[in-house]
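name: query_chain
kind: protein
chains: 1
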Amino acid sequence: MSTITNSPKLLKGGIVLMDAGSGAVQRIISLQYNPETVSRTLQVQAAESSGQGGDRSEALRLTGPPVETIKLDAEIDATDHLEHPQQSPNQTAIEFGIQPQLAALETIIYPTSGHLRQNDAEQAGGTLEISAMQAPLTIFVWSKSRIAPVRITDFSIEEQFFDPDLNPIRAKVSLGMRVLNVNDLGFRHRGGSLFMNYHQQKEQLAAMHAGGRFSTLGIGGIPS
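structure:
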């Protein structure tokens, strides 16, 4: 029997961590299962104006790209790995459950332990100003047309099932992300360049839209 199938290859969404300076990829985190929904909110950045004595010439002006936030729920499950314990890649799941997958996501928002120790040593040595750690550039990938630099703003984990050693084997991770634009990063930052690609991709997709007709709206045109 032929094993050829017409089923399309299922792409996965995920997160890429990159060094903002060198561009070196530090880690790729693919979501085990694609979320059923991805919620996006765009907050308009408009010039301040008001009808009561405000500058009316500012009413239609945009001061920058909208502030875009993204929310999704990701499911992580070790069941498939636990069903075939003889396979070597599944040994980690047997010993730790899904803790490695959770830790890969959690450590995105942690400073490294080395940086914390360095700050403690500098503080003990009399340094008055302790430097904040430069985090990797976090990039949310949701198909080739949606690749955006983001900052994780909300993170919650609901661990749902455990093995006999209390390792979590199923969990739901809720992620909230804010897209970082050129106002946040600047045009010369690697993330700023990624945002401009993301922005231009939207413009190209918008140009593909055929548009409508006045008749569809039930009018003959816009009154003068």
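note: Residues 17 and 132 are 18 Å apart (CA to CA).
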